[in-house]
What does this fold into?
Amino acid sequence: MKSLHASMAELQAENQAMQQRLEATQKELKTQQGVFTAPVRGVYYIRFTANSPTDNTMSAVLYKNNVSIQLIVHEQPSGEGSDTAANGAALLLEEGDTLKMVLWPNTQIWDNSNHHSTFSGFLVFPMGS
It folds into this structure.
């Protein structure tokens, strides 16, 4: 049976390793270009939302390595106000794979300081080659 001290030391080491992976992952998101590059092979959970006035068509498409893999869309004008749509995925990414969000032509999303339109994710667990 492991001692409490040994278990706590393992937990602290695991937490430190997870924090280092998180910091490395955050560095891989190039916010100026809106492109995420996977720093390690593993399963990532990706989540995105989009908000738009209801009198316009809204879309947001998730691309992996420049290939569309998932989208959200609202095509029906529905009066005054705004609509929000969301989607997410667990993806196996290889080191160097890229993710980005793209709008379809003639569509829009909008945002403000309330962060209605978002793109986020995290490494669930790394996988060896």
Remarks:
- The chain has a mean pLDDT of 79.
